[in-house]
Design brief:
CATH topology of the largest domain: TIM Barrel
Number of helices: 20
CATH superfamily of the largest domain: Metal-dependent hydrolases
Strand order of the largest sheet: 11-12-13-14-15
CATH class of the largest domain: Alpha Beta
Length: 511
């Protein structure tokens, strides 16, 4: 919103928007805030987060900066030396970008931390490496790779060693970071194998200005069970990270054809499947009958095929209107065909996606190309394809996998590394605001915009990213039609906007 425009807020709602003096005169007693050239835009929503895990990365050891195996182990040793007590919780190593292309081993970790309990999650959080004492605590020997159930067991053992104070501090750090990024709501993807019910209930009880919408990833087989689970958890839906498969980086995403870079003695050349078509169908049918949002974590092409097959069965049984009414959602959905996308669009299924994945791992030589080969990798995260088939998009970060940085998310969606897969900045911004609100079931046509009657949820951004005195062609005008409700917003080919203040429903939650 350029500085010539004013906005009036009353009782947490946008009451007026305009630039005329007659309109301003309606509020003679208003408190006037001069933004000094800064600009205002609707606040962001992150459609896929893990709050406690994000906070543990912020307050613990973040290994995303590790440039090599040696660097990773040095960071680990330094952290262990500076924090002599308690479990070491680390996140973010990614061997696909290291010169060695070799992940840490148990022996490597033991050499760095001694007899400490140490848990080091890979960046996608679908595999890990752990110290020998932590493996023993989880009942695992040195030969078991930490993927699938073994990973869940060792992560649970590490989580059990955290204190309530550590968990609480981590959650608050994560939510503070969200508010400081211009985010007013996050979709927590919880579940029995992710953080457990205790973690989810503790998060629900956390008093913070960032609104937490929760999804519980546990499969059901009947409508009564679905209703009972919603009542017991207080979740918005039985969706989120209900795993059909794993992740490409850990070679646990479920594929039709084997991975391109299989290590020796690989026992699962096409990845892992955690739910079959029958189980997926039962869950979708139960939730549809109960009127509950269902959804799945689904990445590989075989996993997508299984979910689309199950959805077709449920649509045949209940009808497309009943299915669309539930707002079922798929997380990630990275490998999908045009025919499958058209089906999802016709059934009103929402795709909750992470553009930062392509920015981090796309391209001819990125991790996707390593795992799948360049030809298959070019088809990943096809935002334009999905949008063209009518699939509603919601954007998030999957933090701590990638950072909560919504402007970087918008930029990544507009600069996809595969030609033809990017979407417009206007569409990307909508997916990170209105689209994410819609994914959580709010479809009033107002939330996520700044028009009279809309909730006053917005962020104020530094003026150095939006120079209203610059020539007209220096400002990226994403929409010239006011009916689109997308404001004039900054170019993103330079420094990204810096958040000065975040307001949710009229209450300042940052700045």
């Amino acid at each position: 919103m350029p500085d010539a425009t004013a906005m009036a807020v009353r009782d947490g709602v946008v009451a007026w928007l305009g630039s005329d003096e007659v309109g301003r005169a309606q509020y003679p007693d208003a408190e006037v805030v001069d933004l000094g050239g800064a600009f205002v835009a609707p606040a962001f929503v992150d459609s896929h987060v893990h709050v406690t895990a994000t906070g543990l990365a912020l307050t613990g050891l973040d290994l995303r900066s590790a440039a090599s195996l040696r660097h990773c182990l040095q960071l680990l040793a330094d952290f262990a030396g500076a924090h002599p007590d308690g479990v070491i919780w680390a996140h973010g190593w990614d061997e696909s970008g290291w010169p060695e292309r070799t992940p840490p081993s148990t022996a490597d970790v033991d050499a760095a931390v001694g007899d400490r309990h140490a848990y080091l999650a890979r960046i996608d959080v679908h595999s890990a490496v752990a110290s020998t004492p932590l493996r023993r605590a989880a009942g695992l020997d040195d030969a078991v790779p930490l993927v699938a159930d073994a990973h869940h067991r060792v992560r649970r053992a590490a989580r059990d060693l955290l204190t309530a104070t550590q968990r609480g501090t981590a959650r608050r750090a994560a939510l503070d970071a969200a508010a400081a990024s211009g985010i007013v709501s996050v979709h927590e993807c919880a579940g029995p194998e992710i953080g457990g019910l205790d973690d989810w209930q503790e998060l629900r009880a956390t008093d913070h200005g960032v609104e937490v919408v929760g999804y519980w990833g546990e499969a059901v087989t009947g409508a009564a069970q679905a209703r009972e689970l919603i009542e017991a958890t207080g979740a918005r839906g039985l969706a989120g990270d209900l795993f059909v498969d794993g992740a490409l980086g850990s070679r646990t995403a479920w594929l039709h054809e084997p991975y391109h870079d299989l290590p020796e003695h690989c026992v699962a050349p096409t990845g892992n499947s955690y739910l079959d078509v029958a189980a997926i169908t039962a869950h979708l049918a139960a939730c549809t009958e109960a009127g509950v949002t269902a959804g799945f974590h689904v990445i590989g092409d075989a996993a997508v095929s299984a979910v689309v097959t199950a959805l077709a069965t449920v649509v045949d049984r209940f009808g497309s209107v009943a299915v669309a009414r539930c707002g079922h959602r798929l997380e990630h959905v990275e490998m999908i065909t045009g025919e499958q996308a058209a089906a999802l669009g016709a059934w009103g299924v929402i795709a909750s996606m992470q553009p930062a994945f392509d920015a981090a791992w796309g391209g001819e030589h990125g991790m996707y190309a390593q795992r799948l080969g360049a030809a298959r990798a070019r088809g990943l995260n096809p935002f334009a394809l999905l949008a063209s088939r009518g699939v509603p998009l919601a954007f998030g970060s999957d933090t701590p996998v990638t950072p909560m940085d919504p402007w970087a998310t918008v930029r990544a969606a507009t600069t996809h590394q595969t030609p033809g897969s990017a979407i417009s900045a206007r569409a990307a911004f909508a997916a990170a605001t209105r689209g994410a609100w819609r994914a959580s079931g709010i479809r009033d046509g107002l939330t996520g915009t700044l028009v009279p009657g809309a909730p006053a949820s917005y962020a104020v951004w530094a003026a150095d990213a939006f120079d209203v005195s610059a020539p007209a062609d220096a400002v990226q005008r994403w929409s010239t039609d006011p009916r689109s409700r997308v404001p004039v917003l900054p170019r993103l080919d330079g420094p990204l906007p810096r958040c000065l203040q975040t307001v949710h429903r009229g209450t300042v939650i940052h700045g």
